[in-house]
């Protein structure tokens, strides 16, 4: 009988049966779980997924092998969601800006501008009622939310300094998928365009877009700072991920394996969240040292001007993510 890879991996009785009928035991092949993501290996998400792989292997006594595919090696942004639902890949960690294709656009509430004052507030929010409420939205789509991973605040860049809202006028900006981000940049007078992460560098280099937003770690590892002359730290929005899996696949795992993976995920989440701030700080230093882009840090007054300009996004977002999501976030971050 030809076993599929998944059946082979879960045929836990095979070794015991060989022993019972007096045949030499055949070493059990581990179950292979594919974990795909779009960023570099040397980022909090890259390191977090590898940490999860290492721990999952350890806690399952090598019964599972997590194969991590970074840098859109397997799938680009939108494709990976489809692949998860089809069962072609088992684990992903997309940014919350990318959940609309799953039919869970409520996740975009986490992209609201100036909603989190600091990372501690973000962590409290996603680990509280708001986070649970969001993860529940995935279940009817056949997707299970396993954890939120932090990635810190966005920076924004162009070939001119972006300091005052007027500076943004008419610039084409790449966004990752969130209509909330689309809206706050429209409030600033920009022309947003959704584009896969793997295409951003070239789009900036060739002038297809003028601008982008991301964390310091993503700028550095994708070399965006080499094709953008000015980067502004305004902390207008936060980048976070939800680690997700195919619910049918997860529920079909033997209980001991699922427990091992759950334990590995708790520890990998703590590890990832613990290194995120430091990774961004190190990347920012490296960008400064490269001398390729000038870094601008907004004053409180300049930041306030951005906030005022982006504020209408909240009213607009009621029709996109629902008032309940916005109220939950406001409550959690107050
Ligand atoms: C992006 O597409 O800009 C990022 O969200 C990629 C990532 O996963 O950090």
Global mean pLDDT: 92
**What's the order of the H and E elements?**
HHEHEHEHHEEEHEHEHEEHHEHHH
Sheet having the most strands: 6 strands, mixed
Question: What value does the Rg take, in angstroms?
Answer: 21 Å
Number of helices: 14
| Level-2 CATH architecture | 3-Layer(aba) Sandwich
The percentage helix is 40-55%
Strand content: 15-25%
* CATH uppermost class: Alpha Beta
CATH topology assignment: D-Maltodextrin-Binding Protein, domain 2
Overall number of structural domains: 1
Present as ligands are: (2S)-2-hydroxybutanedioic acid
Ends: how far apart? Answer: 59 Å
What does this structure look like?
This protein has a single domain (27-332), classed as Bacterial extracellular solute-binding protein, family 7 (D-Maltodextrin-Binding Protein, domain 2), CATH 3.40.190. It has 14 helices and 11 strands. The chain has helices at residues 5-10, 14-20, 44-59, 77-86, 119-127, 129-136, 179-187, 200-206, 216-222, 247-251, 255-290, 300-310, 312-321, 323-332; strands spanning 31-36, 64-69, 91-92, 143-153, 155-158, 172-175, 191-194, 211-214, 230-233, 238-246, 294-297. It has a 6-stranded mixed beta sheet with strand order 7-6-8-5-9-11, sandwiched between helices. The protein binds (2S)-2-hydroxybutanedioic acid (LMR). The site of (2S)-2-hydroxybutanedioic acid (LMR) has 8 residues, from loops.
